[in-house]
Amino acid sequence: MQNIRNFSIIAHIDHGKSTLADRMIQLCQQVSDRDFQDQLLDNMDIERERGITIKSQTICLPYTSKDGKKYILNLVDTPGHVDFSYEVSRALSSCEGALLLVDAAQGVEAQTLANLYLAMENNLEIIPVINKIDLPSADPEGVALQIEEDLGLDGALIQQCSAKTGLGVENILEAIVKYIPPPVGDKNAPLQALIFDANYDPFRGTIISVKIINGTVKAGNTIKFMSNNSEYRVEEVGLFRVKRKAVKTLSAGEVGYLLAGVKTVSDTRPGDTITLADNPSAEALEGFKEVQQVVFSSIYPISTDDYEALTTALEKLQLNDAALIFEKDTSAALGFGFRCGFLGLLHLEVIQERLEREFDISLILTVPSVKYNFYLKDTTMLEVDNPAYFPDPMQIDRVEEPYIKATILIPDKYMGALMTLCMERRGDNTNYHYPMPGRIEFTCELPLAEVIYDFYDKLKSITQGYGSFDYELYDYRKSDLVKLDILVNGEIVDALSQLAHRDNARARGLRACERLKEEIPRQMFKIAIQAAIGGTIVARTNISALRKDVTAKCYGGDISRKRKLLEKQKAGKKRMKTVGNVDIPQKAFLAVLKSE
Ligand code: GDP
Ligand code: MG
């Protein structure tokens, strides 16, 4: 155990975690240069394309230090985006130390702070690392000062590197073995293995990532999940090398995986403790905070034939992503689907993309919503995140909506633009101070509903990429909430209904009408599009009727061209939903649902 080091790299998004992980993997020669692919730990296509880490990944690196001692370094790469901080805190629970990476040109950002606090809560030894010192705009001295003075970390521990060129990376490995303590635990005590992640493998069942806190586990053991007492026989235990590598045993202090043919989500809940059935531990380890879904949306397959496939896909995704929740939902316009809960808008987008790419299902998502508390006149309280369940307005006493406390770090010249943005979004109780010269730390209470759409993107654009953002749920406050309906030829399209603050509702209705007008193709009759709040029409537009037969221009032309045109129309039809007598293309739903 003395030669094991379990550590994580934490940082603000884009400060270079994945790149540094790549360099370390190469230095420890886990992959030949020929097989090397950038961002090795970012397995999902979406991660590589967007250049962000979504899921934590673990890798076990053998390392021989300069004084000739052999070590096993377990590196956990963590995501940096606000939506995924629950992944970070889970990953940290498997570690004794963390590298806090700070971009030498950008300095400390909101997520640097947020992640540092998470590491401190987990009592980790922290080694500050200044990355990207190769950049011409790098200011390592200035950043070192921030780290010492603003973060209060030990300046003597600071390492400098360029993850891009590899400069300084070996010194970081030396610092890890020197400053991060080895894990503690008792090999001979009853087994306590902490589940910190789970990934589904179609052939082997769930790959359960564990840190062994106490005891030993090996293939053939019967294990028990302490949350629900279900038992399984262990088929294999192993380490995360670049590929999975089976080993004989996993013992106290080690981080690895466990295969036991588990195919049930509830049996792989991160935070649960695994023990041995015939020599159980008396108590479970302290688990993780329950994740909180804050954004809800319904997902429907474009083609009703895909409903079964969607069900299976969601179940599989949930095995990899315990933060995704879903239940059956139906819509008159879109048929059978699922109401899903997400950690934030990026999480929603990621799930949507994975369903479309990995499972090849075309989808329609309804307008994302937060969860509102409706207090009814009969004094009951109803939680509503779905416009379909908007209570009878006569019965409503009052409605409350969730507020967040946002922490935003920006260069001071963008202060005016930021104030404007926060006021537009119904911000309240703004406060700021200067944690360092030229930089403002701004706090503000905002309705969650106002930030789930595009707040992060807006912030990035008004600050030219220099603003950073973190938030926590704060409280519930009174809201003036209405249900906005969209009608096509007099019929409500339920999938387009949304919950909106009265101040925004009309503008959203107008925008929806315009979007639909652009996207719904002209048909043989006139189509009226309207937006209504509580039965009162607040916006309307018309799509005029189509006069000519589309095949008319082919008369006299060759028959194959005509057939092609008809086929094209048929293919187009498949991506349409019929509401009343109007064909609405998928694109139109998407256009309405997009925020800008
Ligand atoms: P992550 O979001 O923290 O995982 O960051 P990435 O590792 O994906 O890096 C973000 C961007 O910074 C990528 O374009 C990297 O190529 C770049 N980058 C990372 N480290 C360095 C460095 O040391 N020097 C320079 N110039 N660029 C770097
Ligand atoms: Mg990354």
Verbal overview:
With 596 residues, the protein is α+β, with helices and mostly antiparallel strands. It folds into 5 domains: 4-179, 3-Layer(aba) Sandwich (Rossmann fold); 192-276, Translation factors (Elongation Factor Tu (Ef-tu), domain 3), CATH 2.40.30; 295-365, 2-Layer Sandwich (Alpha-Beta Plaits); 387-479, Alpha-Beta Plaits (2-Layer Sandwich), CATH 3.30.70.240; 483-594, Elongation factor 4, C-terminal domain (Alpha-Beta Plaits). 25% of the residues lie in helices and 35% in strands. The protein contains 14 helices and 33 strands. Helix 12 (502-519) runs antiparallel to helix 14 (586-593). The radius of gyration is 27 Å and the shape is globular. The chain binds guanosine-5'-diphosphate and magnesium ion. Magnesium ion binds next to helix 1.
Descriptive labels:
596 residues; alpha+beta; Elongation Factor Tu (Ef-tu), domain 3; Alpha-Beta Plaits; 5 domains; 8-stranded antiparallel sheet; 25% helix; binds guanosine-5'-diphosphate; binds magnesium ion; GTP-binding; hydrolase activity; translation elongation factor activity; protein biosynthesis; hydrolase
